[in-house]
Amino acid sequence: MVDYYATNPGPIDDAVLYDQDKHVSSAIWEGQERSALRCHEHTSKLDQWMLTEKQIELVKKAGFGYLRMIPAISLDNPLISALVERWRRETNTFHFTVGEMTVTLEDVAYLLGLPVDGEAVIGVTYTSCEAVCIRLLGKAPDSGYTSGGMVKLSWLKETFSQCPEDASMEDVERHTRAYLLYLVGSTIFSTTTGNKVPVMYLPLFENFDEAGRYAWGAAALSFLYRALGNASLRSQSTISGCLTLLQCWSYYHLNVGRPKLNHDPIHECFPFVLRWKGKQSSPTSNRDVAFYRKALDSMKPSDVDWCPYSNISHTVIPEHILRSLILGRSKTMLICYDKAERHLPDRCLRQFGMHQTVPEEVQKWERKSRGVDGGVDLSTKMESELNEWSNRHLYIVEAEEDVEESEYMQWYLRITRKLVGRPVPISSEFQRMNAALREIALIADTLSTHGMDDQQLQSVTRIRYITYECLRDQIASTVVVATNSQGEVGKRVRGKERVRRKGMGKRKRKEEIEQYYAAGVPVQSRLPAATFDADDSHLYHMGSDDLCITVSEDDHGRISHVAHSVDDLELCEDANGLDESHFHHLAEDGRLSSEVAEDKPHASIDVVPQVSHETREDIAQQNDYGVLV
Asked: Which positions carry the signal peptide feature in this UniProt record (predicted)?
């Protein structure tokens, strides 16, 4: 099993993870390392808002009484980045070595204290800030503080962070709405813009009692799911959403990057994120993405705490939160305006103390966008998603009896991406593949062809050709030896083939030389070749107008020469180690066959002409470098 995953990390069956090619794990496996993601959460200045008692009461009515208590927690960007590498947008779960896990509505309720039951967070879109800000805040920002339907967080703080004690109730409400917009824009709905928040949330705070009826926790989770899915794509470098929720979820569930507490966790405060308040002692300075990736790749069942809240006294949890915890097991659609994401607890039953069964197939859904038009009520556009959310209490996942989890793990290992990082360095993979190709080439070169018919001979020829093509592609991309403008060869690599390519820059070639030697590929490696009898040669076309192969046999019936002709590429084989400058001259003047024949009367070489040749002077001007194998 270990050897298999060293070369193929999965999935074996791509029925579930059908977007693997787009995922960042594919890029990492191919050697395209991605640095730690830029994490956009803007909680550092939340404590600069000075709320009055009246404002705090309004904040509680709106459902954010606990969220406002959560302080800024230092984010571990490498840990978050490694978790993102394990996130799959096809299932909205993390694919770990031990099985699937995810952040559920139960986690949101425990960790943030946000309401996870209620009306869907959805409304009207805006492309301008002025009208809605004047109506609900009493003033509008200057154009420098806006961008379409978004307003800068800095304007909200500068204008509304201090409400006068003697302010009218209308002003208190305006200042509180500004604070709530700032709060959601810097935490649960933080965007990759860095410092802006859409004003479309503002009308939801017009009436504070009605604001308290929304499922803000479900909206926060939908937003985070979408952010995780976007960040898991190989082209992304940033992530937004409630990253404090994500990081603290990891601290509770995984023994990876978890800091040591400086206080006794027995006396828990609600919400449970507060366990990680303040400074913790943990050596995170030398922990980069690769460190956490390796830890997650080697994670064992003992590193997972499936039910971390079970030992915490529930007496500190508000009654309305306790009543809604059942929705953690609801298969439903989470909604935050245009962001609708599936909540699939049936894939993570062990997080609810149940045995895991093979889950049902995930029903695909369209990830919609709100578009560019303002004044659009998304309730119509998201009708099917809203219907699914309205039936959330009807689809509660229940435990099954007599479940054998080994069946689940057998299924899971076939559909998952087990590894993200390579167990064997890519340079070692290259050397092993190179050695195997050379072995195949040697077998094909020395194979006796006596008794073979034309079809069998052509098959052997094709094997040899394909092997040489693979070797050429590998070596041409890693080893390049410079020649000067007069066509003189620099340090020669011993070998029997010469590859000349056009249009490659000097800088790139210099880097490739360094990479070649760093990989440890033997410079002395060469492809075998031998002389042959011209009378025994055969010409084969390989299904292309630009490619044909001349094959010849020696006196022992072995394939001894293959001459190639490919558009914009010339491969010539020489068994006698001709001087390079002489080789250039012969090949360019078309006299290679005759002069070699004079030197070696028992051998001749057929050179299949290319579509066009440059003059020697053109080659010297256009191609200062040659590739030698």
From this structure: none
